[in-house]
Amino acid sequence: MSNPVYLALDLPQLDAAKALAQKVKAHVGGLKLGLEFFCAHGSHGVHEIAQVGLPIFLDLKLHDIPNTVAGAMQAIHVLEPAIVTVHASGGRAMLEDAKAAAGEHTKVVAVTMLTSLDERDLQRTGIAGTPHDHVMRLTELAHESGIDGIVCSGQEVAAAHKQWKDGFFVVPGLRPAGSAAGDQKRVVTPRKARDDGASVLVIGRPISRAPDPVQAARDIEETL
Ligand SMILES: O=C(O)c1cc(=O)[nH]c(=O)n1[C@@H]1O[C@H](COP(=O)(O)O)[C@@H](O)[C@H]1O
């Protein structure tokens, strides 16, 4: 089985991001480039990181009207990402149009509820109910819209997987036992997420900020 870990390269410097990717590439299955990276380095930066030779997950979390999101999806065809994120709360038409505009080999996955939020945060955005209920509702919407899968925390992935048997499940908010949660609120260990049905494990700081990132990536790989 291929390594399900995608390393989140949330680093401001392109050189440092590329050097880190080169160092740990034997112990991860892909590289995730998010808003911090894309805003700083754009398409040029994505091409640079793609030279490392691993699949690229472009985490742009698109959330706009359907026409705008479809245009953005078309604009990134040239980057040939393996995975792209949109927000499920953009609604069904946006999800359908995002998928229709995506490249043939790109998986479109919808963020349900950010792993940095808990039930109280959710209520403050005006949404009643538990994170579990909210994630299940948006999982159903994503499934109906014909996209490839969702992003959720490891606390919901078992239930989401049960609801959508052949879905593609991206799980961030992962922390090896004993590591700092930081701004993440709904966390589980990488092993638990994998056992519960995650297709991709997104891991950033537990590797990138470790004193020895290669050792940290290797230690995580060994738990899987
Ligand atoms: O879409 C994501 O990848 C994502 C969704 C989510 O709900 N929570 C979340 O943390 N992420 C991303 O996953 C990565 C987690 O990084 P660490 O908390 O450093 O492991 C970051 O790059 C986030 O942008």
TrEMBL record:
<feature type="active site" description="For OMPdecase activity">
    <location>
        <position position="61"/>
    </location>
</feature>
<comment type="subunit">
    <text>Homodimer.</text>
</comment>
<dbReference type="GO" id="GO:0006207">
    <property type="term" value="P:'de novo' pyrimidine nucleobase biosynthetic process"/>
</dbReference>
<dbReference type="InterPro" id="IPR001754">
    <property type="entry name" value="OMPdeCOase_dom"/>
</dbReference>
<feature type="active site" description="For OMPdecase activity">
    <location>
        <position position="59"/>
    </location>
</feature>
<feature type="binding site">
    <location>
        <position position="204"/>
    </location>
    <ligand>
        <name>substrate</name>
    </ligand>
</feature>
<dbReference type="InterPro" id="IPR018089">
    <property type="entry name" value="OMPdecase_AS"/>
</dbReference>
<feature type="binding site">
    <location>
        <position position="32"/>
    </location>
    <ligand>
        <name>substrate</name>
    </ligand>
</feature>
<keyword id="KW-0665">Pyrimidine biosynthesis</keyword>
<feature type="binding site">
    <location>
        <position position="115"/>
    </location>
    <ligand>
        <name>substrate</name>
    </ligand>
</feature>
<feature type="binding site">
    <location>
        <position position="184"/>
    </location>
    <ligand>
        <name>substrate</name>
    </ligand>
</feature>
<dbReference type="GO" id="GO:0005829">
    <property type="term" value="C:cytosol"/>
</dbReference>
<dbReference type="InterPro" id="IPR014732">
    <property type="entry name" value="OMPdecase"/>
</dbReference>
<comment type="function">
    <text>Catalyzes the decarboxylation of orotidine 5'-monophosphate (OMP) to uridine 5'-monophosphate (UMP).</text>
</comment>
<dbReference type="InterPro" id="IPR011060">
    <property type="entry name" value="RibuloseP-bd_barrel"/>
</dbReference>
<protein>
    <recommendedName>
        <fullName>Orotidine 5'-phosphate decarboxylase</fullName>
        <ecNumber>4.1.1.23</ecNumber>
    </recommendedName>
</protein>
<feature type="domain" description="Orotidine 5'-phosphate decarboxylase">
    <location>
        <begin position="4"/>
        <end position="220"/>
    </location>
</feature>
<feature type="binding site">
    <location>
        <position position="10"/>
    </location>
    <ligand>
        <name>substrate</name>
    </ligand>
</feature>
<keyword id="KW-0456">Lyase</keyword>
<keyword id="KW-0210">Decarboxylase</keyword>
<feature type="binding site">
    <location>
        <position position="205"/>
    </location>
    <ligand>
        <name>substrate</name>
    </ligand>
</feature>
<dbReference type="GO" id="GO:0004590">
    <property type="term" value="F:orotidine-5'-phosphate decarboxylase activity"/>
</dbReference>
<feature type="active site" description="Proton donor">
    <location>
        <position position="61"/>
    </location>
</feature>
<dbReference type="InterPro" id="IPR013785">
    <property type="entry name" value="Aldolase_TIM"/>
</dbReference>
<comment type="pathway">
    <text>Pyrimidine metabolism; UMP biosynthesis via de novo pathway; UMP from orotate: step 2/2.</text>
</comment>
<feature type="binding site">
    <location>
        <begin position="59"/>
        <end position="68"/>
    </location>
    <ligand>
        <name>substrate</name>
    </ligand>
</feature>
<dbReference type="Pfam" id="PF00215">
    <property type="entry name" value="OMPdecase"/>
</dbReference>
<comment type="similarity">
    <text>Belongs to the OMP decarboxylase family. Type 1 subfamily.</text>
</comment>
<feature type="active site" description="For OMPdecase activity">
    <location>
        <position position="64"/>
    </location>
</feature>
<dbReference type="GO" id="GO:0044205">
    <property type="term" value="P:'de novo' UMP biosynthetic process"/>
</dbReference>
<dbReference type="InterPro" id="IPR047596">
    <property type="entry name" value="OMPdecase_bac"/>
</dbReference>
<feature type="binding site">
    <location>
        <position position="175"/>
    </location>
    <ligand>
        <name>substrate</name>
    </ligand>
</feature>
